[in-house]
Amino acid sequence: FNAKKAYLEALKKKAEDSKLNVTQDNLQEYIKDWKTLGYVPDGKRQIEDKFNKFLEKSLEDLDLDKKDLAFIKYKMLMDGYKATNNIKKIENEQFFLIKKIDELTREIQQLDNNMSFFSNTTESNPLFANVLKTLKKNQEDLKVLKEKYDYLKTL
Predict the structure, then answer these.
(1) Would you list the DSSP string of 9-70?
(2) Are the beta carbons of 76 and 55 closer than 8 angstroms?
(3) What whole-number distance in Å separates Cα of residue 63 and Cα of residue 90?
(4) Angle in degrees, 0-180, between the axes of helices 2-18 and 24-36, rounded to the nearest 10
C-alpha cells in the first residue's frame, strides 16, 4: 500500500511540475508498474480509485477519439478486476457481453431481413434511412463488443 501511495504521489508531482509527457505507451507503463507494486488490502482500496482518476485525467489530455478512450478505460477497469482477483466481476462481464453480442446479432439479422422488403427505394425514404442508420449503428456496437470480449478472453 505504501509503495503504491508513494508511486501515485510521485506521478502527480511529475504531472504538476513538468507537465508529464503523457502518451498511450507511458500510461501502459504506469499501469504495469502499478500492478508490480503488489496487493492493496480491502480497507485501503481508495488508493486504486485515486490512481484510476489520475489515469482518466491523463487520458482526457491525450488526443484520442471517443471509442479508443472508452476501450482504454474499459481495459483499465478489467485489469483492475484481474489485479484484485475479482474473478466474479470478470465472469459477469463476459456473460453480459455474450448476451449483448447475441442480442445485437439477432437485431442485425432482423434489420437485414427487413431491408429485403424495401424495393426500389432511395435513402430519401425516412423509414428506409432509419433502418440503414440503425443497422450501421448496431454493426459498430457489435464490433466494439466483440473487441471487448476478445480482450476479456486474454485475461
Answers:
(1) HHHHHHHHHH-----HHHHHHHHHHHHHT----GGGTHHHHHHHHHHHHHHHHS---HHHHH
(2) yes
(3) 29
(4) 160
Please give the model's pTM, rounded to 2 decimal places.
0.71
30-74: per-residue pLDDT in tens? 877 877 787 777 777 788 788 888 887 777 777 777 788 788 888
Distance in angstroms between the alpha carbons of the first and the last residue of the chain: 24
- 26's grid cell: 507511458
- Give the number of other CB atoms < 10 A from CB of residue 34: 23
Q: What phi and psi values does residue 103 have, to the nearest 5 degrees?
A: -60, -45
10 Å CB burial of residue 15 (0-12, 13-18, 19+) is middle
Element spanning 117, H or E:
none
